[in-house]
TrEMBL record, chain B:
Heterodimer of LeuC and LeuD. The gene is leuD. This is 3-isopropylmalate dehydratase small subunit. Residues 5-124 form the Aconitase A/isopropylmalate dehydratase small subunit swivel domain. InterPro entries: 3-IsopropMal_deHydase_ssu (IPR004431), Aconitase/3IPM_dehydase_swvl (IPR015928), AconitaseA/IPMdHydase_ssu_swvl (IPR000573), IPMI_Swivel (IPR033940), LeuD (IPR050075). Pfam families: Aconitase_C. Its EC number is 4.2.1.33. It comes from Pedobacter aquae. Pathway: Amino-acid biosynthesis; L-leucine biosynthesis; L-leucine from 3-methyl-2-oxobutanoate: step 2/4. It catalyses: (2R,3S)-3-isopropylmalate = (2S)-2-isopropylmalate. CDD domains: IPMI_Swivel. One of its GO terms (molecular function) is 3-isopropylmalate dehydratase activity.
Length: 469, 198
């Protein structure tokens, strides 16, 4: 029978099917961090059980970590306590631990691929919803709750009903200034934040085929924001080139064998999806959000829609605009910006900093904005230095922070103050997500850069034109 | 972690007629710093419930003594956002045993089922009726019958049935969790692992 890419990977990992219930799914790789794991380890202790395959779990500290002065003790005692618990638990159960200060430390979804832990055809889970990032490699990857973290630690399995399948195809060529982030925000604006709930998405078509691994990770990362369990892209030469030679990828004969298998990982020509959506690349322009969920996004040159034009309750919509201090019909261009945040597992990779630098080069940081540039990992940090990007940033008046989740969820000190506006490259603009009372506009690194040098919401294409012309 | 068995729950309900209630509202990230599962109920809907100086916001429904009960009724797409099980813990710890909505986000729903909170998905029309009934009489009771898979508005007798997999239903009715199940098939899992490509 014809199968989709998703079917092929899922079916290979089903240990047992339960009548009238979920599948018992084997998990190849498990990533953990300090926030969603401690209670799972407590559960193991209470039940008196061990970690079944410690070599399949990897721990990194990221959600809670400071992004300056990482060599100093962590000031917040609660954060310090979680970091210590992760270290102690990893040690006790024999799990690799990349804690604060470790050379491999970084955001869990950035370091996984960097070290080759993420591989095509794998099942990957983590107690963080943006685990969907790893689907860029043709893996089935999704976020889980703490009870499930405990299941994976103790039995390397979780119990999941098989999701439905959706394919989103985009053909054509992206216009200038349109990045993978815009592609994702565009899809979410069409689908809403619940449009793909119950589905696992496969992205297909020229746009994704031509996209870099970094770009594919950005798109798959945001699958969860349309409600999907995860998203994936069939592995191809771009994928294989990216993973070859990384620390945890197979070598020699094992590589050849793996390649043979990986090349079979694509959707059969006549396989059937439960839902198919098709867009054209030319429909997409640089995007920005105006509301309090990632589905409330528009092309940057557009006006905020009227309540009647959007799906859902008028009351909820008005509450959202009220929170943002925006009105129906407002133009987004020229909106005030107090903070700019570039980072997170959505846009904290080298390509994102290259894009940011391409716009700010030869310009100066606007005086009214505070800018936090946070690399996703130490590898990204070194690349920024080696490629001369840091020099460009420094000349333009910016500084670079140290790796971590930072203002993506504002669990550490990187909080946007109440009432302030931030243009952020992260993934959620929920009320208070970036700090109590903070107001977030999600956008690409290019839009972030334009805001950082002009001090307000600006179409990056104008600045790019100036540079070219 | 074991939880109380769920059978028939008859209770008044707390209405929260907002759509897309996300997990950052249910429990803001700054309250995720515990290493034990205690006290999350105090911070349920923290920023909707309290002012920055920790005084209660009188117009938020949890601060309104008119409404109480073990059932939370939410608008469409309840629980979207992060995978933090802390959101489900906060709901449970506050004293809710069931959440009713016309649509749930996936991971939140899963997390609820894993810790003993029953997500009850009803039609948009029935949800509307529930909101109206509570508005008319805040003490009106809902009856959720898990064995029969029905939810009833006791004031009018109107009823709808809801979906749950027979496996999860059995778990909820007995207070079992998935780890118990998985532990019992460990040797089968280990055998399976030897045949995997990765
Ligand atoms: S950067 Fe944000 S979304 Fe990504 S892992 Fe960290 S907290 Fe989660």
């Amino acid at each position: 029978m014809s199968k989709t890419l998703f079917d092929k990977v899922w079916d290979k990992h089903v240990v047992r099917k339960i009548e009238g219930g979920p599948d018992v799914l084997f998990i190849d790789r498990h990533l953990i961090h300090e926030v969603t794991s401690p209670v799972a380890f407590l559960g193991l202790k209470t039940r008196g059980i061990k970690v079944l395959y410690p070599e399949r779990t990897f721990a990194t500290a990221d959600h809670n970590t400071p992004t300056i002065n990482q060599h100093l003790p962590v000031a917040d005692p609660l954060s310090a306590n979680q970091l210590k618990a992760l270290e102690a638990n990893s040690k006790e159960y024999g799990i690799s631990h990349w804690g604060l200060g470790h050379q491999k430390n970084g955001i869990v979804h950035v370091v996984g691929p960097e070290y080759g832990i993420t591989q095509p055809g794998a099942t990957i889970v983590c107690g963080d919803s943006h685990t969907s990032t790893h689907g860029a490699f043709g893996a089935i990857a999704f976020g889980i709750g703490t009870s499930e973290v405990e299941m994976v630690l103790s039995t390397q399995c979780i119990m999941q009903p098989k999701p439905k399948k959706m394919r989103i195809t985009i053909n054509g060529t992206l216009s200038r200034g349109v990045t993978p982030k815009d592609v994702a925000l565009f899809i979410i604006s069409k689908l809403t934040t619940s449009g793909a709930t119950g589905y696992f998405v496969e992205y297909a078509g020229e746009v994704f085929e031509k996209m870099s691994m970094e770009g594919r990770m950005t798109v798959c990362n945001l699958s969860i924001e349309m409600g999907a369990r995860g998203g994936m892209i069939a592995p191809d030469e771009t994928t294989f080139n990216y993973i070859q030679g990384r620390e945890f990828t197979p070598k020699g004969e094992a590589w050849d064998k793996a390649m043979e298998y990986w090349k079979t990982l694509k959707t059969d020509a006549d396989a059937v999806f439960d839902k198919e959506l098709v867009y054209n690349a030319s429909e997409i322009e640089p995007m920005i959000t105006y509301g309090t969920n990632p589905g409330m996004g528009i092309g940057i040159s557009n006006q905020i829609p009227d309540a009647e034009q959007v799906e859902g309750g008028v009351e909820t919509y008005e509450k959202s605009l009220n929170y943002m201090g925006f009105n129906e019909g407002d133009s987004m261009i020229g909106k005030p910006v107090d903070y700019v945040f570039v980072g997170s597992c959505t846009n904290g990779r080298i390509e994102d900093f290259r894009a940011f630098a391409s716009v700010v080069k030869g310009r100066q940081k606007a005086e009214n904005v505070t800018v936090w540039l946070v690399p996703g990992s130490h590898i990204v940090e070194s690349q920024i230095k080696e490629e001369g990007i840091l020099d460009i940033l420094t000349e333009a008046g910016f500084t670079l922070r140290q790796p971590g989740c930072s203002a993506c969820l504002a669990m550490n000190d990187d909080k946007i103050p109440a009432g302030k506006y931030a243009v952020s490259t992260s993934n959620r603009n929920f009320e208070g997500r970036q700090g109590p009372g903070s107001r977030t506009m999600l956008a690409s690194p290019l839009v972030a850069a334009a805001a950082a040098v002009t001090g307000k919401v600006t179409d990056p294409r104008e600045l790019m034109e100036e540079l070219v012309g | 972690m074991a939880y109380d068995k769920f059978n028939i729950l008859k209770s008044s309900a707390v209405p929260l007629s907002i759509e897309n209630v996300d997990t950052d509202q249910i429990i803001p990230a700054r309250f995720l710093k515990a290493t034990e599962r205690v006290g999350f109920g105090d911070n349920l809907f923290r920023d909707w419930r309290y002012n920055p100086d920790n005084t209660p916001k009188p117009d938020f429904v949890l601060n309104n003594p008119t409404y109480s009960g073990k059932i939370l009724v939410g608008g469409k797409n309840f629980g979207s956002g992060s995978s933090r099980e802390h959101a489900a813990w906060a709901v449970y710890d506050y004293g809710f045993r069931a959440v009713v909505s016309s649509f749930f986000a996936d991971i939140f729903k899963n997390n609820c089922l894993n810790i003993g909170v029953l997500p009850v998905q009803v039609s948009p029309e029935f949800l509307d009726k529930i909101f109206k009934a509570i508005a008319a009489d805040p003490k009106t009771a809902l009856e959720i019958n898990l064995p029969a898979q029905t939810i009833t508005l006791t004031s009018t007798g109107e009823q709808e049935s809801f979906d749950i997999s027979s496996y999860k239903k059995e778990n909820m009715m007995n207070g079992f969790d998935d780890i118990d199940y998985l532990q019992n098939i460990k040797s089968e899992i280990q055998e399976f692992a030897t045949h995997l490509p990765l």
